[in-house]
Design a protein that fits this description.
The chain is α+β, with helices and mostly antiparallel strands and 110 residues long. It has two helices and four strands. The chain has one domain.
């Protein structure tokens, strides 16, 4: 199993990005998602653009319909340096940044 480690995000022109090692799972397959997170010893936290009321990207996105969020630099959920960006994507609730953090070292095959 390849470990899921931080990489330098390469956001596209609109500001979106996904970690190259995120699994491609069927939408709504929570069992597979939870299994993958457990195998990698990870927890995730979502930070929504909606919480950045004063940010220009918030106004453009929610009031003007402009999907470009390239200037939005979401902050990790707390001051822990262990969080790293896993993806920035668009959802039904607007743009979201997913941060990952290792909560335990997964067992490795010998």
């Amino acid at each position: 199993m390849k470990p899921f480690l931080p990489v330098v995000p390469q956001r596209d022109a609109e500001g979106y990005w996904s970690h190259p090692d995120l699994p491609e799972l069927e939408e709504g397959d929570f069992d597979a998602w939870n299994k993958w997170k457990s195998e990698h010893g990870l927890t995730f936290s979502a930070i929504f653009l909606d919480g950045y009321d004063d940010h220009p990207a918030h106004h453009r996105y929610f009031e003007g319909g402009d999907t470009n969020i390239a200037d939005w630099e979401p902050e990790p959920p707390d001051s822990s340096p262990d969080w790293f960006l896993a993806c920035i994507s668009d959802t039904d609730d607007g743009p979201v940044a997913w941060f990952a953090k290792r909560v335990y070292e997964p067992a490795r095959d010998a």
